[in-house]
């Protein structure tokens, strides 16, 4: 590529920061991959629906890659079409649920072999009680975006709820529901002495970010620097708060896969994952840690089946896609 050799293989292995920075900067200078044809970008590429799909694809891709599958996923609509990576992900979410004897390992040349894998993906989804109305294995093979996103959302949600359930000290092995997560968040904020409340995961008042900042402050009192928080009235103020929320959550060690826009636009799916990630991080903390809450965690978690507005989750929404 015509780049100077700033470092050796040994330098890369040892992780020399200055040499690595110089090397990467030199590559960027020679081959930055940036296009100067900005005026030729079609307006159609930035339609709202496409932007929403792109954001969700990114979130699910990051989540799947975080699980440590055998192959890195660059695009869920293309890389999942043979069904293999979906089977790997299902096996990580629910170990032992995949029948590997009938699975076809890549490279797969025959199309019907891909369909066989994807049919097993759909079959397992039904075992896990996903809402899979009008979804068949061939839809995944064909790269149907909406149906793939609907499946991935339910798979991601299943993983989050399973992680929370596995914290048996707090859940006593009971099934965790969306209502439990909502109740837990409201309890933490209420016990911290503030009046904010989340009525559901699609509550439009969440767009200013104040509730989540108060939730983060409740679970870790020193986490939020309130001098950096805006009133969240104007759009730019909401985005600043949203960016700060993501930054704090990541700093605490929460697994975060959403973007600031998901918060400002109150994306119900991503709001749920954010709340659940904060809850999971909090419940993993040592029991003897000084927690601000006056109510025990087990009291805020139940196997409630209340017909709460919070349980109007995306399962119903996805079933109607």
UniProtKB/TrEMBL annotation:
Comp. bias intervals (Polar residues): 292-321
Protein's name in the database: FIMBRIN-2
A family per Pfam: CH
Keywords assigned: Actin-binding, Repeat
Species assigned in the record: Salix koriyanagi
Signal peptide range: none
Database matches in Gene3D superfamilies: Calponin-like domain
Residue span, Calponin-homology (CH) domain: 54-160, 175-283
SUPFAM superfamilies hit by this protein: Calponin-homology domain, CH-domain
PANTHER family given in the database record: FI19014P1, FIMBRIN/PLASTIN
GO molecular function: actin filament binding
Subunit structure: Interacts with F-actin.
GO biological process: actin filament bundle assembly; actin filament network formation
Region Disordered: start-end pairs: 289-321
Gene Ontology CC: actin filament; actin filament bundle; cytoplasm
């Amino acid at each position: 590529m015509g780049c100077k050799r700033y470092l050796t293989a040994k330098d890369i292995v040892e992780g020399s920061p200055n040499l690595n920075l110089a090397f990467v900067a030199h590559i960027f200078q020679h081959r930055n991959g940036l296009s100067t044809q900005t005026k030729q970008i079609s307006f159609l590429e930035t339609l709202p629906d496409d932007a929403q799909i792109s954001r969700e694809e990114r979130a699910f891709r990051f989540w799947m890659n975080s699980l440590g599958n055998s192959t890195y996923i660059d695009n869920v609509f293309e890389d999942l079409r043979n069904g293999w990576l979906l089977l790997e992900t299902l096996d990580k979410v629910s170990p032992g649920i995949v029948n590997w004897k009938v699975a076809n390992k890549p490279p797969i040349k025959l199309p019907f072999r891909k369909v066989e894998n994807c049919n097993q993906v759909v079959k397992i989804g039904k075992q896990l009680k996903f809402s899979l109305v009008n979804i068949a294995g061939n839809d995944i093979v064909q790269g149907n975006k909406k149906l793939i996103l609907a499946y991935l959302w339910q798979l991601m949600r299943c993983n989050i709820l399973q992680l929370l359930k596995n914290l048996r000290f707090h859940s006593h092995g009971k099934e965790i529901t969306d209502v439990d997560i909502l109740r837990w968040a409201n309890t933490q904020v209420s016990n911290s002495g503030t009046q904010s409340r989340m009525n559901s995961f699609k509550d439009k008042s969440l767009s200013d970010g104040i509730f989540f900042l108060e939730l983060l402050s409740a679970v870790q009192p020193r986490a939020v620097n309130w001098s950096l928080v805006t009133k969240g009235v104007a759009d730019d103020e909401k985005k600043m708060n949203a960016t700060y929320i993501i930054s704090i959550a990541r700093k605490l060690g929460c697994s975060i896969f959403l973007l600031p826009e998901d918060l400002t636009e109150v994306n119900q799916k991503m709001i749920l994952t954010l709340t659940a990630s904060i809850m999971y991080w909090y419940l993993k903390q040592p029991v003897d840690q000084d927690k601000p809450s006056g109510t025990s965690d087990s009291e805020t978690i139940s196997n409630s089946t209340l017909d709460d507005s919070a349980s109007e989750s995306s399962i119903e929404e996805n079933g109607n896609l």
